[in-house]
Amino acid sequence: MSVRGLRAPSGLALNYLSRAEPAAGWEHVLGIATFNGTPAAVAGVTDIPVARVGTPVLPSAMDLYEVWSTAGPAESGEHGRVRFRRTSELLFGCIAVSEHDFPAEDPSPLHRATEDAYRDLCATLEAQGYPHLLRIWNYLPDINRDSGGTERYRQFNTARQHALHVCGRALTGSVPAASALGASSESPLVIYFLAGKVAPLFIENPRQVSAYHYPREYGTHSPVFSRAALLRQSGGLILFISGTASIVGHQSLHVGDTAAQTRETLTNIQALVGEANRVAGDGRFELGSLAYKVYVRRPSDLPLIQAQLHAALGARAQVIYLQADICRQDLLVEIEATGIYPPAAAAA
Fold this sequence. Notes:
Largest sheet: 11 strands, mixed
Strand content: 35-45%
Distance between the termini: 27 Å
Structural class: alpha+beta
Order of helices and strands: EEEEEEEEHEEEHEEEEEEEHEHEEH
Strand order of the largest sheet: 1-2-5-3-4-20-19-21-16-15-14
Helix content: 10-25%
Radius of gyration: 19 Å
CATH architecture: 2-Layer Sandwich
Number of strands: 21
Number of helices: 5
Number of domains: 1
CATH superfamily: RutC-like
C-alpha cells in the first residue's frame, strides 16, 4: 500500500507509507504513528518518536506508517514520558500511559492516565518553548464502555479538561484541533501531537455547536477541541480538520444509516473547508486535495463508506481506513483530514 503524501514547498509534510523508509531521509522526519500490526521499530533509527496506535488497518492487516516530516533537519529529546522531535518552528511529541500503572482500587485509572499524560504534554511544551498546540490525536481503549457508572469517553473528557485547566491552558476558543477514538482493550492511552511557536487560527463549523459548548447531556465536562486549525508557515498554509462525524448542532443524525452518516460527515468537512478558505482570505483548499483518515466502527461497512467517499472525492483522493470505535455509540464513521497549500508540485 502506498498513499500519496502532502508536502509544502517548505515546512510540514504528511505521508502514509506501507514501509517506514521516507524518500527524503530520516533527518527530516519529525515523528511517526504506526497502527495495529505495524512494526514499531524502524531499522537503524532510535531517536524518532513513534506513537503505537492500537487500531487495525482496513481492509486487511497491513503495515501502515503515518510519517510527519519537514524540509529541514530535526533534533530529538525527551521530557518526562514524552518523546519529541523538533525544528525551529514545530514539535512532534507522543506519550503512552497504561492504566495498569495505577492501583487496581483506583476508581478511574483512565482518569489518572489521561491527567498524567496531559500534564506531561503541557510541561514538555512549556520547557521546550512551543506554547501553541496545533493538533492532538487521542486513542483510548474501550472508549464507549461504562466504568464505575460513567462512559470512559466522558471520564477522559473530565480528566483532559482538569489537566489543561491546572496547566493554565484555554478550555474554549483557542484550543487545538483533535480526535479521540477507541483502541483495543489491551492498548495504553496513546496521545501524539503537533505544537508550534506561532498560534494557528482556530476554526468552527457554522453547522455545529462548538464541542466545548456541548450541553451537559453529553457529559459533565465538554470535549476541549476546535473543529479545525489553520497554520500559516513560510511555505504556505496547513489545515488540520478534527475528527468529524454526522453531527448537526450537537445532535447525531442518521442513526443506523452508515451511508447517510458518511455523506453528512463530508458535508461538515466541506463547511470547514469553506470556513478555512474564508478565514485565509480566498479559496485555497478543496475536498479532493486533502488527505483523509477514516475511522470505521464496523468493518462490514467499509465498502459502503468507500463508495460514498469515492463519489464525493474522486478516485485519486488520499484516504486510509482504520477500524475504531467512535466517541458516541450511535456514530458509525468519523473522518479527519489534513490539507497543505500550496502543494510542492503546484508551487514548482
